[in-house]
Amino acid sequence: MRRFYVFLLLALTLVLALSACGSSSGGAAKATVPAATQRPTSTTVEEITINVYDNYFDPQTVIVPAEQPVGVTFINKGANVHIVEILGLFEETPLQPGQSKRFILVADPHPYKMYDEIYVSKGMVGSYIGGTNAAQATPTGSPPATIQAAIQAYLAYVQNQANQLVENTQTFTDAVLAGNLDQAKALFAPTRQYYERIEPIAESFGDLDPQIDARQNDVPAGQWRGFHEIEQALWVQGTTAGQEQYARQLLADVQELNIRVASIKLTSLDIIEGAVALLDEASSTKITGEEDRYSHTDLSDLAANTEGSQAAFEEFANYLNQKDAALVNDVEAKFQAVEAAILPYRRGSGFVAYNTLTPDQTRPIAQALDAAAEALSKVANELPPN
Amino acid sequence: MDRKMSRRSVLITAGAAGAGVALGAAGYTLNSLNNHHTSGTQTSAGQNAIPFYGTHQAGIATPAQNNLHFAAFDLLTTSRDDVRALLQIWTDAAATMTSGQPLGEGAPSLTAPPADTGEALEYGPENLTITIGFGPTLFTLNGQDRYGLAARRPDALIDLPPMPREELDPDQSGGDLCVQACADNPQVAFHAVRNLARLARGIAVMRWSQLGFSRTASTSTGQETPRNLMGFKDGTDNLKAEQTALFDKYVWVHEPAWMQGGSYVVTRRIRMRIEAWDRDILGDQEKVIGRYKVSGAPLGQTREFDPVDLNAKGPDGTPVIPLNAHIRLAIGDGTIKILRRGYSFTDGMDPQTGELVAGLFFIAFQQDPRTQFVPLQMRLAQEDALNEYIVHVGSAIFACPPGVQEGGYLGQMLFDG
Q1: Segment A157-175, tens digit of pLDDT
Q2: Which of A140, A282, A355, B91 supports an S-S bond with A305, CB 3.0-4.6 Å?
């Protein structure tokens, strides 16, 4: 593969000193740290090499242990001069062709934007992510009983989903760039789930949602890009040809989303309204089959919207139980009813094609979503004033 | 053995005399209609009657009535004479019906279908107005000049451009001709369109139709602002008929000559996501619209007609009326004004979701859609917070010609000029 990413994982409470073989987990593409980049003189500092080509970074996404020094070496392997920067970690640094430069960087546990000053507008962007344990897809452990703890837990969930969105989009776009049509089609819906679980967050940033998720008639002609533009190529034209620019743009956009998510501030009302909005999204847009009109993977998006809504709600369940346990039970029962409604259409980790469902089959799903959302909308009134 | 003639075949062979109107190659006769200029029937300009004749068609500046039946028609004929004949018949029928009189003349015959369908017989005029318009496809269809009128299609009668987020059903959009019937009584409004459709048989067919059950605009300062199906007052900031100078500037067309005194109407069938809206918290509903729900006052103000202050900021420095609130985007910089004259509708249930099919049948009259409706809707479609809760599913544009005097017919200057 032309691009790969180095993924260094560590447990939440332990900091591991990595050996020469490195370690990796998660995602579909694994990579070990090549022995050539190991510097025997600094065994306690992790070492990364980022190659700079014309005009892209390789690896484009780097996840390092947060809050410890990491040696990062940029090597300009292109013919152009490149001016590289990791925003917040070091200032713009020119590299002549063939030149390399090493930095010792300590990242906070959030993503940083990596880019080339000269070619950023052409998409020469990457992500340098200070990571914690990113493997959790669902909240675990006992949800906290205070509002502040619930908000923090939800923010961590969103960041986690955003991190996984970046990883999965990397793999998806790699398949597109490699011309691997079948793999790209297989990865399309699973990748989107990380976006669909947190879509209202993305929408709050204004420009990012249309760039990532617009359908063809949502935007003026000539401005269409993102998942659905690529979807049309994969399913209607049956090709990845010509999609390179869109693939790179999509990855850059989800990386940007990931960065912005790190500094988002949400009130408990924002989160619960967002949870209702996710069910609205499922019952208004996904249920019509107009979201994934080429791949007919709408059920996958709909399930992800519901999961994201429930995840948000669950963070507040312990707090809400103290105020109105009957409401909590009601909401949880209604979420289960949604799952029961879509269960017949699950196939392995995916779903049947949405266009095979008749109105008699879609209607109970929509009605279950409406019932869940109506119950969930009562939660807002139980929250403290912001 | 001769086959016994069926009752049906007897009627057909008896021909058209007195049984209605046959148009086209067989010619037509007006004498089966109530030609009320000569029959001596009073045109009651009394209670609840809106005069049909005048400089402008009624139903535009008329204070909005509560019931709508709107229909778009497609012409089957290739003959310009047929279209002219239809317009003459429609004009006369409209004048009759809006005066509260039934169609037809003399005592009904037992061997002829009734000239008037009868369901409005005891009702008076009920403030019925009938307004007719010409769609772009009357002039050109698939590049063809259908009736020799293509060169006279006004520049302002555009094909509406695609807009973001719309999901238009072609079967609910467009049309060669339109009829807007508004009345205080739904049966009277229904009756008007039904009878015009009947008179058009063989010449034009109905393309789509829309019933509306409650006005969603005030078009007169004498009217209380109604509520649309989102529960919000709608039409507070509308052009009002008393503002004659503003009507001259924003509603009435001045050129070309055949359109002078007419207006362009844009209709949009807007479906509301009722179930999702109903579970939105009140504070958010008010932020989406930009007004308080119960009073209709702009956010930050007290009374419905208090002026909208788009510059007002709250104690935290954020705008009182959010940047994507509907009324902020509708007002824009204040330079675009249209006459809204829409109606609430419901057509039952969506079988795919079990949800209500209901919303606002938006009707707007203006002098030039290119500088009024189109830029306004482009702005709303891109930014309006309301977009979460609505979707445009039907669309049409028509040129409503000027009014007529007795003896004339709607569109006369276009067809005869």
Answers
A1: 999 999 999 999 999 999 9
A2: A282
